[in-house]
Amino acid sequence: MPSPAMRPSTLHLPQGDWATVLDCLCAHFPAIERAVWLQRMARGRVLDGEGKPIDAEHPYRAGLKVRYFREVPNETPIPFEEQVLWQDEHLLVADKPHFLPVMPAGEYVEQTLLARLIRRTGNPDLVPIHRIDRLTAGLVLFSVDPASRGLYQALFRERQVEKRYEAIAPALTDLQFPCVHRSRMIAGEPFFRMQEVAGEANSETRIEVLERRGALWRYGLSPVTGRKHQLRVHLAGLGAPIVGDDFYPHLLESRHQADDYSQPLKLLARGLRFVDPLSGQPRTFDSQLHLQW
């Protein structure tokens, strides 16, 4: 049976002339061999909308809700541990290490912050209220109770959360600090990168200098908006790419290789501050992690 830390993916079967659900799944996911689907079905890892197992002979029906559990054979363990900093009946705050994804994606299923915390707490209702990149370390806020989840999600959606980051990057001796960098960011090439282009700004970051050590400085970053890779793109655009960044300003060949744990991205989600929507009291959380020079 699936691990309690695992959550199924959902597919509503498309229109077609397949005889069985198995035939439809094989056509819809050509990269997954038929034998793999048969193995999953045999182990109860393909279910209908009511949670009942679907076998190899189950007849196809357009629109049928199918829930299946993703699997990554021989998933590589990530040798860094998360730390729970706070937990009450509504929230859990964790320090995520570098290289650990927040949510399952691609080659990561069990080796994710969400899966680890569900196993640790035994609470399958945990949901991250926001996310940070796999290569970024630091604070991630989780909802514990579905009943109050929407109130905390609204804080991020309405930009009521003050987020503070730190980064180590080359010195920008020609700029006056603190400064505000605004730009228009859109999807770049390849699809997982972003780029700055001419036009009305849709991203904004406040930047200050926290520490100077010769050619490298430690910056404090306060994003006003939350565009994908915003802090990495903004610093690279200013001429100070974050140490350890394989994406910006140029995509390096090393990203196609295994993670080099000795060379993490020097970016840390340092702090979160907001007014609690239930109690009305200010809440402040600070990461216990530190960027190493």
Can you write the helix and strand succession as a string?
EHHEEEEHEEHEEEEEHEE
Count of β-strands: 14
What Rg, in angstroms, do the CA atoms define?
22 Å
Helix content: 10-25%
Q: What is the quaternary state of this protein?
A: single chain
- Sum up the overall morphology in one term: globular
Q: What is the SS-derived class?
A: alpha+beta
Q: What gap, in angstroms, lies between the N and C termini?
A: 45 Å
| Count of DSSP-assigned helices | 5
Low-confidence stretches: none
Give the DSSP E fraction (strand runs of 2 or more residues): 25-35%
**pLDDT averaged over residues:** 92
Main β-sheet: number of strands, strand sense, barrel status?
11 strands, mixed
Give keywords:
alpha+beta, single chain, 293 residues, 16% helix, globular, three-stranded antiparallel β-sheet
Topology:
Layout: E1 9-12, H1 21-28, H2 34-42, E2 46-48, E3 65-68, E4 83-87, E5 91-96, H3 113-121, E6 127-128, E7 137-143, H4 146-157, E8 162-170, E9 179-187, E10 194-197, E11 203-213, E12 216-223, H5 230-237, E13 267-275, E14 282-286
Parallel strand pairs: 7-13
Antiparallel strand pairs: 1-3, 2-3, 4-5, 5-7, 6-7, 8-12, 8-13, 9-10, 9-11, 11-12, 13-14
